Write a sequence for this structure.
């Protein structure tokens, strides 16, 4: 008997059967319809995009068991972090295994359709809390990441001067967007906590707010608690989620505020009456204004989302005139608020963002044209190659995300169609019959994810790609979640497929962490040259504190990338950066001789003291630069020479104020002028943050 698969009529099947026998084919003949298979794979029909949620009673289910498992995994993570400080080679792989142990069991339960809404929400809270504790285990007593010092300096200025907008040479734009710093300084003033402790409380609240808001937002958009919880899992796979977005930086607060704006906007759409939607509109407007004063890039992204949503809402069939006016009003406020705030504070973002964007676009153009070599994948600036397991996991994570986008992009659009339609993709008269305009916009946002991968292949554009990737994951999360629930898991009720999908989601999570942190996820046993968190250690902190105690605060220093962070925060000194003054004082420090050009550079910059760290002569910089990252700084192919750093010793008008064997402070205030010897400043006490460790030797 011959079987013909497809839409052929019975008569046509019989004719084909007779022809097959006449030509000598006695077996089964199967003709698959490739177009139907492709349609099912991409989700072009509504029956291929249906999601079968199971309505279980609301209970916590197995969430207490998973909370216990997360606690055990955190103990392993803590042991691994301590082993890393002792130089054990197994520490980093074990730390990644602990992260996977936190995520994998809960992900399998969330993907399985048998969990209730309350259990899903409880599991999201448990995993979110456990991953935040991972951040605490990595840096339990002090800020250690580069961007955290930039905003810590701004908080100290607010606490000491009791006013805003004081200049911050480390990041001039930071004081102009003080949302995070205002909340932290208020908590410090009310509670008496240190800046570090208050900052952790703010970050923990922001992280919990983000995940709960995303769950409610995705649930309102899709109408499914299962898809919403899976989308939260996928969002955790963003490269910035585990650590970067819980650094003490303004983006860590801005992303939760963006999610709250979108939730208020979507809640407005789902109100039964136009009048009942106005409280949500007002709440969204207040959040938009607050976001404009917190972070520039996130505010601009919010503007793009709300403007696109207003356009889609105007095109959507069935939307009332009042709902369209409300969407246009929110979009208008989203445009006005960041522009008005930028004008009030002096429009600083153009000079800050445009050079980075221009450099990234230039390198992308060179990459496409193959005119020059670009950033080598998995190779650090010091030439170290990442372990094989990290390389393979990162590539697998990107491949899994791309596969999820392939099977979820069109499926999400069909899923968003009106229930009476078989598809909103064909015929064209159904294109405007979607339920949620925001879901359409988020699906389109996923097109930025491949762009972020391209930017990550370049040196200058890596940071751009990292930021684009984190924002595009708002769309990636929900698109991949629809693909998982409707296609990859389907109607299965067993645990095997759910566990396999949870393992894939875990690979995405680990790949995101590796692409962001890699081997430097833990503090190493020894000091590393210009490697941000791996370069923050007691000796440098002790030297910075010495300057505050014996020289007084607000002295003008020239120093390398790491020590200027410590001088600005622990020492409360003024440091020279090219962002603020445009002068690259690192050229004067690394020059072979202190010639007329170097003297003029130091004098024009108003430098009073130069801090030299001889440990820079022991290796190349871990982040590619010793100082500000100018063209001269990136040309270093070998470590710096100690003779160049110590050239100030032979200058008669330069005094050596401090020397602990590795770090030397030179008083260059008499260069080009005659002045009286300076009087040691009054001791001003300890800074707001303390590592609680013994200081290094100083004299």
């Amino acid at each position: 008997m011959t079987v013909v698969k497809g839409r052929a009529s019975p008569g046509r099947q019989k004719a084909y059967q007779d022809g097959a026998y006449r030509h000598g084919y006695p077996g089964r003949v199967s003709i698959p319809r490739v177009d139907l298979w492709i349609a099912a794979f991409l989700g072009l029909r509504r029956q291929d995009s249906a999601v079968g949620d199971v309505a279980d009673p609301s209970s916590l289910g197995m969430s207490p068991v998973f909370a216990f498992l997360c606690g055990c995994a955190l103990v392993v993570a803590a042991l691994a972090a301590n082993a890393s400080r002792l130089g054990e080679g197994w520490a980093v792989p074990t730390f990644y295994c602990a992260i996977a142990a936190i995520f994998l069991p809960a992900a399998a339960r969330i993907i399985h359709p048998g969990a209730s809404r309350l259990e899903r929400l409880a599991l999201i809270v448990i995993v979110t809390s456990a991953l935040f504790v991972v951040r605490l285990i990595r840096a339990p007593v002090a800020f250690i990441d580069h961007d955290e010092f930039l905003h810590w300096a701004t908080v100290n200025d607010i606490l000491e001067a009791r006013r805003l907008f004081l200049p911050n040479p480390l990041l001039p734009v930071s004081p102009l967007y003080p949302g995070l710093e205002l909340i932290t300084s208020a908590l410090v003033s009310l509670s008496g906590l240190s800046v570090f402790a208050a900052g952790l409380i703010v970050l923990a609240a922001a992280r919990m707010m983000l995940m709960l808001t995303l769950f409610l937002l995705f649930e309102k958009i899709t109408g499914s608690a299962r898809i919403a919880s899976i989308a939260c899992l996928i969002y955790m796979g963003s490269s910035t989620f585990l650590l970067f977005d819980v650094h003490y930086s303004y983006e860590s607060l801005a992303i939760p505020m963006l999610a709250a704006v979108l939730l208020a906007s979507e809640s407005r759409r789902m109100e039964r009456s136009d009048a009942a939607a106005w409280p949500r509109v007002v709440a969204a407007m207040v959040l938009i204004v607050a976001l404009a004063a917190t972070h520039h890039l996130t505010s601009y992204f919010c503007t793009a989302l709300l403007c696109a949503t207003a356009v889609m809402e105007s095109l959507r069939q069935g939307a009332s005139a009042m709902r369209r006016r409300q969407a246009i009003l929110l979009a208008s406020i989203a445009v006005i608020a960041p522009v008005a705030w930028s004008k009030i504070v002096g429009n600083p973002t153009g000079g800050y963002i445009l050079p980075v964007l221009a450099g990234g676009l230039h390198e992308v153009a060179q990459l496409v044209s193959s005119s020059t070599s670009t950033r080598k994948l998995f190779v650090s600036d010091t030439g170290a190659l990442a372990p094989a397991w990290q390389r393979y996991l990162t590539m697998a994570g990107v491949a899994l995300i791309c596969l999820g986008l392939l099977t979820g992009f069109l499926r999400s659009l069909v899923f968003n169609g009106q229930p009476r339609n078989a598809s909103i993709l064909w015929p064209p008269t159904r294109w405007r019959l979607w339920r949620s305009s925001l879901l359409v916009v988020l699906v389109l946002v996923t097109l930025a994810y491949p762009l972020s991968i391209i930017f990550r292949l370049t040196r200058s554009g890596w940071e751009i790609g990292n930021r684009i990737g984190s924002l595009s994951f708002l769309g990636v999360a929900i698109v991949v979640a629809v693909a998982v629930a409707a296609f990859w898991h389907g109607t299965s009720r067993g645990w095997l497929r759910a566990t396999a999908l949870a393992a894939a989601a875990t690979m995405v999570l680990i790949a995101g962490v590796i692409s962001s942190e890699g081997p430097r996820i833990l503090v190493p046993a020894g000091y590393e040259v210009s490697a941000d968190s791996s370069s923050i250690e007691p000796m440098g902190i002790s030297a910075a504190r010495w300057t505050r105690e014996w020289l007084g605060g607000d002295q003008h220093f020239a120093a390398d990338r790491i020590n200027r962070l410590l001088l600005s925060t622990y020492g409360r000194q003024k440091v020279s950066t090219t962002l603020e003054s445009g002068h690259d004082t690192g050229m004067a420090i690394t020059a072979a001789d202190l010639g007329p050009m170097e003297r003029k550079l130091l004098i024009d910059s108003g430098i009073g003291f130069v801090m030299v760290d001889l440990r820079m002569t022991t290796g190349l910089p871990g982040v590619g630069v010793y100082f500000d990252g100018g063209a001269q700084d990136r040309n270093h192919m070998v470590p710096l020479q100690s003779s160049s750093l110590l050239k100030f010793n032979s200058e008669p008008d330069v005094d050596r104020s401090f020397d602990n064997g590795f770090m030397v402070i030179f008083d260059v205030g008499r260069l080009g002028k005659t002045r009286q010897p300076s009087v040691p400043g009054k001791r001003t006490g300890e800074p707001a943050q303390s590592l609680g460790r013994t200081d290094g030797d100083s004299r």
About this structure: The longest strand covers residues 609-613. Residues 208 and 296 are 22 Å apart (CA to CA).
